[in-house]
Amino acid sequence: MSKKIVIVGGVAAGPKAACRLKRLQPSWDITVVDQDSLISYGGCGIPYYVSGDVAEETALRSTSFHAVRDEAFFENAKGVTVLTRTKALSIDRKAKKLKVENLQTGAQSELNYDKLLLATGSKPFVLPIPGADLDGVFTIADLHKAIEIKRRIAGGKVGKVVVIGGGAIGIEMAEAFTDLWGIETALIEFMPQLLPRIVDAEFAAMLKKHLIDKNVAVYLSEGASEILGNSEGKAIAVKTPQRTLEADLVIMAAGVRPRNELAKEAGLAIASGFGGIVVNSRMQTSDPDIYAAGDCIATRHLVTGKQAFAPLGSLANREGRVAADNMAGYATTFDGVVGSFIMKAFERCIAATGISYETAVAEGFDADYSLTAPADRAHFFPNTAAVILQMVFDKRTRRVLGLQAFGAMNDSISARIDAAAVLISKGAVIEDFSMAEMAYAPPFSSAIDSLNAAAFVADNICAGLLRKVGVARFLAWMEDFNREPDWLALDIRHAKDAAILVEKFGNEKWLSVPYPEVRARLAEIPADKTLIILCDAGTRSYEVQVFLDHAGKRNSLVLSGGFNVLRRIGAGWLGK
């Protein structure tokens, strides 16, 4: 028997659900309603359209075989009716009707449904500050705004840009303006680090340094207090408590919120806090005939077990498919997310999955982490580069809670993050990561994969075989030696590499004993100091710690990640 399915929202989850339903139930009548004129586009590609990496906006709306996904495409190729420029006004749950308005004519009508899917997406958070409505202030809300931004830039009307918000979209937009267009760009973030609550401080610091190296001015712990305009109503500057930054264009990238108004007014259950529509694992709302999917919902975090907001196009498509399956009578579940994230920033890549160490501590886990800096492929292969990995784990249960990565813009990071995401979603412990079989060939990885190596270090920490010191604590000591007056840096790199720091700080704070010489020069290594052992990645430092312990000198700590991390953070005392 044919059924009527109405879907509100035509960007990601909605179209995916509609097409899946037509494949499962070809005779069903499926209608998609969207208030915009542009539908089914890759919103995550907007920064790359602005930058020029994607030449035409139609590419974001096209299939892999270059057909533009518009109303005619869905009608003719998919058998799905799409009503654009049509706003959903209200839901009559008892009568099972959706009231809509044609935004071109103002005419209102009702659509009957047997099942209704809400895929209303998210909306950008607009800071409640003076000047937010000035001409030249944009949120990255839809493709229309992206087209206008690019039109202004291409027309030579933009020389300076201020981006408000140091999350993924803000950083990607800052790169877009700077990389191709050469526009003077400033990025301001209210929190003390970039990507707050996504990565830990050391990873945010490495990203910050790279942005600065690429001529993006970065201001942390600063919130925009006002956007200044001229007599013509155009934005000309952004004011913070610390400074005023001139701007021809202002991008407000302060995060997004679920579009939940339709659901809330219909009396559906809404998550407290961030306001996502509550759904079960089959994407049903509190009304069994109404489903929801995409950026508008509250999902479950598989590490913390708590409700989570995960506005990603990849998840929206999967959620839309699950909703379609269940509406069509095929029992499928979407169990939740682990918060996988990856982004490009000029020549660098940063990624994370699971939860950060900071979050793990706040959530009450007995948390610790391993910080490693191995090569991204076999060390003898040309053009190898260090990849920084941090594995977060619970010391009591040995469950791996998260993984973060920073390195060159290649596939080495995505491969490890993707593998970790699958393992973490299944509740994997350190041993699962240690023994995970990863494809090996010298152009792609080392014989001991970097993911395995991170788990080996985590295992050593849990077993009490490795004692480490965190980067933040070490850097604080370097700023003020009086913080830890009994510390001594034991630099086991080549003597030429250590010489500049020995000269700068003296042997009483910086002792050079190259790795191959440690055994022969054991007598020179003091027993009355806390030794901070440093090498490039941390591996040799651990070996030296084991030897010193065996020799009766158990007064050492290994600097996690070594100089590979310090250089990427850009400690001033390192010099050039």
From TrEMBL:
<keyword id="KW-0274">FAD</keyword>
<dbReference type="InterPro" id="IPR016156">
    <property type="entry name" value="FAD/NAD-linked_Rdtase_dimer_sf"/>
</dbReference>
<dbReference type="InterPro" id="IPR001763">
    <property type="entry name" value="Rhodanese-like_dom"/>
</dbReference>
<keyword id="KW-0285">Flavoprotein</keyword>
<dbReference type="InterPro" id="IPR036188">
    <property type="entry name" value="FAD/NAD-bd_sf"/>
</dbReference>
<dbReference type="GO" id="GO:0016491">
    <property type="term" value="F:oxidoreductase activity"/>
</dbReference>
<feature type="domain" description="Rhodanese">
    <location>
        <begin position="513"/>
        <end position="575"/>
    </location>
</feature>
<dbReference type="InterPro" id="IPR023753">
    <property type="entry name" value="FAD/NAD-binding_dom"/>
</dbReference>
<dbReference type="InterPro" id="IPR050260">
    <property type="entry name" value="FAD-bd_OxRdtase"/>
</dbReference>
<keyword id="KW-0560">Oxidoreductase</keyword>
<dbReference type="Pfam" id="PF07992">
    <property type="entry name" value="Pyr_redox_2"/>
</dbReference>
<protein>
    <submittedName>
        <fullName>Pyridine nucleotide-disulfide oxidoreductase, dimerization domain</fullName>
    </submittedName>
</protein>
<dbReference type="InterPro" id="IPR004099">
    <property type="entry name" value="Pyr_nucl-diS_OxRdtase_dimer"/>
</dbReference>
<dbReference type="Pfam" id="PF02852">
    <property type="entry name" value="Pyr_redox_dim"/>
</dbReference>
<keyword id="KW-0676">Redox-active center</keyword>
<comment type="similarity">
    <text>Belongs to the class-III pyridine nucleotide-disulfide oxidoreductase family.</text>
</comment>
<dbReference type="InterPro" id="IPR036873">
    <property type="entry name" value="Rhodanese-like_dom_sf"/>
</dbReference>
